[in-house]
Amino acid sequence: MDYTAGLDVALNRLHEEGRYRTFIDIERRKGAFPNAVWRRPDGTEKDITVWCGNDYLGMGQHPVVLAAMHEAIDATGAGSGGTRNISGTTVYHKALEAELADLHGKEAALVFTSAYIANDATLSTLPKLFPGLIIYSDELNHASMIEGIRRNGGAKRIFRHNDVSHLRALLEADDPKAPKLIAFESIYSMDGDFGPIAEILDLADEFNALTYIDEVHAVGMYGPRGAGVAERDGLMGRIDIINGTLAKAYGVMGGYIASSAKMCDAIRSYAPGFIFTTSLPPAIAAGAAASVRHLKTDQARRDQQQLQARILKMRLKGLGLPIIDHGSHIVPVIVGDPVHTKMISDMLLERFGIYVQPINFPTVPRGTERLRFTPSPVHGPKEIDALVQSMDELWAQCALNRAELSA
């Protein structure tokens, strides 16, 4: 077996399909978000504006967050020293979990090193707690949810995206006595559409099913205290397990679940992804707690972000560009071809200093390749003007479709 040749074949396939992903070296500058510096391969530098980051609210630069991290690192040092069971639990971790439990109105929360791990570890563990559990999963759920459900060895049912009628049919077809859990998201990040939370919760009540919602693209962003879409819609108390991230709107790192005290205790005690993973550094936990605490009261920041997203969508629609608009803060522009998507991404960066990564298969279906813009409260008129003008020029240059997609 020529292993090197095998790697060449695999990598060349990505190049031929236009799906090979390239990292660029950027350096964020404190206080300058969303601006950064691109270090080119030839050693030269170019000022750029980041338009594809998940730090939706710029909290990774917020003085309150930075101060909390500096204080913690000065007090405790760099690392946590181990897993949560072996020396890796600190007052900072406990304080963060208390903030998250309060945020979601739950008895407890459990922090993981990422929301991916939180999803994977929790969903793969639940059948150990409820033998015979059947998990009903939206077909467009995050890869981490899919992986956790796949690995758990239990029964699973996949329902068509946001199709409550299909979900009902699947529930009706199974043993009414079997334990059940419905796993879905509040915002699906590639199209920016919302899950039918109320309808799913009604079905869960009817069929005595647990509910598991992924709010990673919504926490910090929606609701009067930033607890997510379920809080905004007054539904949070009806959900059994809430998954969230600390690495998007909260601007730091980590993931979590919020639930009953017994549920968190059981996951803590049975999930290998929690038991055998070194915990977050105390400084990260401190910064995340400060960010969560701050955004419970900073509605102005959320409002400004939503305003910038509406303005950008309106401007792009005015050019006839094919955007998807479901009313969320995510702005996808469909290109429909991986080579063209990468080409436009490269030209935006090199010619205009605009950084947005192409989104290709398997993240999205073939033929729906796109650029996904994530405006923040500080992507102001100057940055929006530059982006819109650049997109207009490149769309004309590449002779791409200007027919608007329906929401």
TrEMBL record:
CDD domains: KBL_like. Its cofactor is pyridoxal 5'-phosphate. Its EC number is 2.3.1.37. GO terms for biological process: protoporphyrinogen IX biosynthetic process. It catalyses: succinyl-CoA + glycine + H(+) = 5-aminolevulinate + CO2 + CoA. Homodimer. This is 5-aminolevulinate synthase. It comes from Actibacterium naphthalenivorans.
